[in-house]
């Protein structure tokens, strides 16, 4: 990381200068979160090993909680031992590489465990602040999913939206349904489904049915058009009804 100094909290940089002036010594950092998390240390380990190689030093990294294990609040996830001069300015990025992934893994695990029969698709990429965060969140979803599979027998995450992070879920390509833009382009929900199936005949068909506010009617119409896909379990529907209205046929009273 060539711009590490510019991305590091200034008080760490000042500490590094003080240590450089008065003499280095070995230090051990205990890295922990202040809340329960699922351990997701892969990115931070890669970062530390890469920085040690770049600086020509050795860091001893002891992982106290292996990837995918539950970690209590305040429990050290890992220990990092090495020359303080070469560790002290890494803390800012170190925590960036570890904290968000562990919290996201915890959230993913909780979600999968609460809905153990549901197959989830990670569509985080378009909500992330760049490619680095997108990779981290996909990794975290996969780690949390594996934890939920072990402790709750959950189906968990079966894939993600982008090819770049599909490998975290054992896939080669991204997965998805269809966006609202395609429905608008086609002019009707049924026509969008027909166009999708004609272009990708070997793929299962998941149809977005809220574009026109006719979730039930459009879903039934698509089922009648593709009875063979429905019978084979290859037809599904995506509901993305906005919070400003209710699904077709419902109002505030009927929705309770």
Task: Describe the 3D structure.
By secondary structure, this protein is an alpha/beta fold. Among the domains are: about 5-105, Aldehyde Oxidoreductase, domain 3; about 180-240, no CATH class. About 45% of the residues lie in helices and about 15% in strands. The protein has nine helices and nine strands. The chain has a three-stranded antiparallel β-sheet. The protein is elongated. The model has no long low-confidence stretch (mean pLDDT about 95).
DSSP summary: helix tally:
9
Question: Helix amount, in percent?
Answer: 40-55%
The count of β-strands is 9
Could you state the CATH homologous superfamily of the domain at 5-106? Answer: Quinolinate phosphoribosyl transferase, N-terminal domain
Write the layout of secondary structure elements.
Elements: H1 10-22, E1 26-32, E2 37-38, H2 42-55, E3 60-63, E4 70-71, E5 76-83, H3 84-87, H4 91-114, E6 119-122, H5 131-152, E7 156-160, H6 180-186, H7 189-199, E8 205-208, H8 215-225, H9 227-231, E9 235-238
Parallel strand pairs: 6-7, 8-9
Antiparallel strand pairs: 1-5, 2-4, 3-5
Top keywords for this entry?
single chain, 256 residues, alpha/beta, Aldehyde Oxidoreductase, domain 3, 3-stranded antiparallel β-sheet, 43% helix
Report a brief summary of the structure.
This protein has 256 residues and is of the alpha/beta class. The chain has helices at 10-22, 42-55, 84-87, 91-114, 131-152, 180-186, 189-199, 215-225, 227-231; strands at 26-32, 37-38, 60-63, 70-71, 76-83, 119-122, 156-160, 205-208, 235-238. The chain is elongated, with a radius of gyration of 24 Å.
């Amino acid at each position: 990381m060539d711009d590490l100094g510019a991305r590091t909290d200034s008080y760490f940089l000042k500490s590094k200068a003080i240590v450089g002036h008065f003499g280095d010594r070995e230090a051990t950092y205990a890295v922990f979160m202040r809340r329960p998390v699922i351990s997701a240390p892969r990115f931070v380990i890669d970062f530390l090993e890469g920085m040690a190689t770049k600086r020509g030093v050795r860091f001893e990294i002891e992982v106290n909680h292996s990837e995918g294990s539950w970690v209590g609040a305040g429990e050290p996830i890992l220990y990092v031992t090495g020359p303080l001069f070469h560790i002290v300015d890494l803390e800012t990025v170190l925590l960036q590489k570890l904290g968000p992934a562990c919290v996201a893994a915890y959230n993913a695990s909780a979600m999968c465990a609460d809905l153990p029969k549901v197959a989830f698709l990670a569509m985080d990429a378009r909500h992330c602040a760049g490619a680095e965060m997108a990779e981290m969140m996909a990794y975290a979803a996969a780690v949390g999913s594996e934890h939920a599979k072990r402790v709750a027998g959950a189906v968990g995450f079966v894939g993600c939206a982008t090819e770049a992070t599909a490998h975290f879920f054992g896939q080669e390509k991204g997965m998805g349904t269809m966006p609202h833009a395609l429905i608008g382009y086609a002019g009707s929900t049924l026509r969008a489904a027909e166009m999708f199936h004609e272009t990708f005949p070997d793929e299962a068909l998941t149809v977005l049915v809220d574009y026109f506010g006719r979730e039930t009617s459009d879903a039934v119409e698509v089922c009648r058009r593709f009875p063979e896909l429905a019978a084979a379990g290859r037809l599904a529907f995506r509901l993305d009804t906005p919070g400003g209205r209710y699904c077709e046929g419902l109002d505030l009273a009927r929705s309770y």
